[in-house]
Write a structure and sequence with these properties.
The protein has 181 residues and is α+β, with helices and mostly antiparallel strands. It folds into two domains: 4-67 and 166-179, 2-Layer Sandwich (Alpha-Beta Plaits), CATH 3.30.70.580; 72-164, Alpha-L RNA-binding motif (Alpha-Beta Plaits). It is built from three helices and eleven strands, in the order βββαβαββββαβββ.
Amino acid sequence: MAQLILFNKPYEVLSQFTDRGTETKRETLSDYIDVPAVYPAGRLDRDSEGLLLLTDDGKLQARIADPRHKMPKTYLAQIEGEADEASLDQLRKGLRLKDGMTRPAEVERIDEPALWPRNPPIRIRKTIPDSWLQITINEGKNRQVRRMTAAVGHPTLRLVRWAIGEWSVADLEPGQWKLAP
């Protein structure tokens, strides 16, 4: 029977079990998960937080991570400024990034979600408001959500992956994990 782990990846933790990048030790999955033979099904950038799935089943890993399977990934994005309908429509239709067109996204404005505090907190600028979007995509270009919001004039300040398909991070604190039911 395949194992599937739901992990709430904290900010600045690498989505891998070892750190080969710098002389300074950075936190990795091995600082949180002591389960043999599981591997991340996809990636989550170091400066992003939220749901990361890990499994010991290669076929399940491919089904989750491969964009051909169009598994929806839902993000909560705190953005700089207030996105107008024209900006949201661009995201909904898909837009051209340097590596090609994005697929259409589901996007809606949301109230600030009741999330855990980020450590360190985002930099607040008194003269520039911020707001929140819920964005669902079914592909996984590198840093896609951040590049999409920046392309419509609203850089992402904080990015939390809330769900992948039917799995959610709703009941996990940062650094916690559980086996999927």
